[in-house]
Amino acid sequence: MTEAEETYYTEERWQNWLSRVEEEELDPENEDSARLLLNLQDDAAIAIAKIVSAFEEDDLDQSVALDELERVREIVLAEPEFDAQGGSEDKIMLVDGVQTSLICVFYAAEEYILGGTAESAPLTEYVEAAADAEADEDVDAALGYLVQAGTRIIAGDELDVTVVDEIEYGLVSEWVNGLDSLQSAMSDPEVVEED
């Protein structure tokens, strides 16, 4: 295992989280269940933030940073496997929600490493444009706007996530949820304890 793999994220770490999800009686309305899923998401976002920070500090060059991102993406976005009993379909659906939220975070980090930040604009405008694009069933454009917002978050801009209260629940609200995890990770990249 390379030093980078030890530093950023491991398959074992992700599997430990999935084991916790599998063991718990999950109810998204329950605070402890919601916290577990958020911790799962935040932990992956922290790994992404650390890769971006290492790139910014010239500890990783562009190609290595992109390779690391891809490696973490393959771990985190792989389809989870749970035992067939104990509501595994529901758990897969909940983990899928976390994975969906993180898709935007991976793309934003990749975009930032490849091209820097999007032009400066209030982040709420990016979210509103994404919501409008989703309403017009242009999912690619919606994702594009939020990826741009993500590059601004990496650069230090702050997103007021209450903006999602104004939009219909869907992919955009899921992706904004991921950007919220990225924002937390960029401001405080402390590892989430697994226990």
TrEMBL record:
<dbReference type="Pfam" id="PF09920">
    <property type="entry name" value="DUF2150"/>
</dbReference>
<dbReference type="InterPro" id="IPR014518">
    <property type="entry name" value="UCP022079"/>
</dbReference>
<protein>
    <submittedName>
        <fullName>DUF2150 family protein</fullName>
    </submittedName>
</protein>
